[in-house]
Amino acid sequence: MARKETRTVATTDWVAAAEGPLEALSYHGLDGRPGFKLALTVKDGRHFLYVSHLWHSGWSVLDVTEPAAPKHVRFIPGPPSTWTLQVTLCGDLLATSLEPVPPDWGGESGAPFSEGVFIWDITDPANPSQMSHFKTGDRGTHRNGFDDRGLLHLSARVAGQVGLILVLLDVSEPGAPREIGRFSMPDQAPGRHPASDPPFGIHGPSIRVGDLAYLPYGGHGLVIVDVAAPARPKFVGQLSVRPPLGTKIAAHSAVPLPGRNLVVLNSEALEEGCNEPVNYAGLIDVTDPMSPRMISLFPTPRPPRDAAYESFCARGGRFGPHNQHIAAGNPHLFQDESVCFLTYFNAGLRVFDLRDPHHVAEIAYMIPKDPPSRIGPLPRTLVTQVEDVLVDARGVVYFTEKNTGLYIAKWHGKP
Questions:
Q1: 102 domain residue, yes or no
Q2: Which residues of the chain register pLDDT less than 70?
Q3: Quick check: is 89 in a domain?
Q4: How many domains does the chain have?
């Protein structure tokens, strides 16, 4: 399918460049706390967005019922010296991750931290109430996700394993969550890698479809696990992509398209200036889950025609894929297996048409202006770094940036 060449540039002050059926609506500075991951619920006709923060421990709650005029309801402080990066929800439960802040991200080496996951009651969505704190006994959790069977899939660091593994948590009694099963790759046992190069493990989230869970497993690629008996998850299949593709987080997000037997898999760019193996996003055919195969790669985003830089690699900061919009069965979120919303760091938010799985086409993008000032130590060159994206069932698009706040746009559909 040919790429649509019609170009529209939004007039909103925060937009540097835009193309395709994305309309800029509003921006919120989150009281000076840049946003990171996003989760959304709807209660009594009101839309509430939960935003985790990158350089501040804690979470913000926003009322986005009127997306052109978002309202900051409250900030909930998190534990000191703790990354609270990830938020995920299902029904009236919200889960927020806890892990130490790495020194190169502003953390203090040896500082005490909180770890694991908080479970919150969001029956009153404007006022989350903490119900429990599950601890892994080690360095906590990274990116987690609920399934439709009352389980919370944790990307967890636990004693006796190297890197992040899958831990299945029963949250049917959210005040007393309990581990019921775990899965790890054989080389995550201690001593299998030099201490200077440990495996990253599962980035998460693990997303369940039927009895199968699709795990974006860092350098191990896509790993498919049978969780029908959650006390004994079983390996089913794997697609390795590194080398030659991707970084240590060569599989960052794996989003199943159940109606098409496909998975959208992408890596995470880590080094600034593209000083690493090439990153990618691609479609994986999982018709045979024991033998998944890559069938296409997404086109590499190009700068706007009037850009002052020849390539995003030359622009500074990170360039490459990061987070996808993940609906994961939430009825309040956008559901369309033919469209992928994917953040690309200094290339902003990109939108891809997946109707022809062998010829993916980029159909829209939106790049915020560079931050006016620095809040965190990264990126070394202060340019836009778009982090996460979430799209609600109204077609309202929310995305975050590393040194600013929350951006809101409207998706008007495929051209």
A1: yes
A2: 1-11
A3: yes
A4: 1
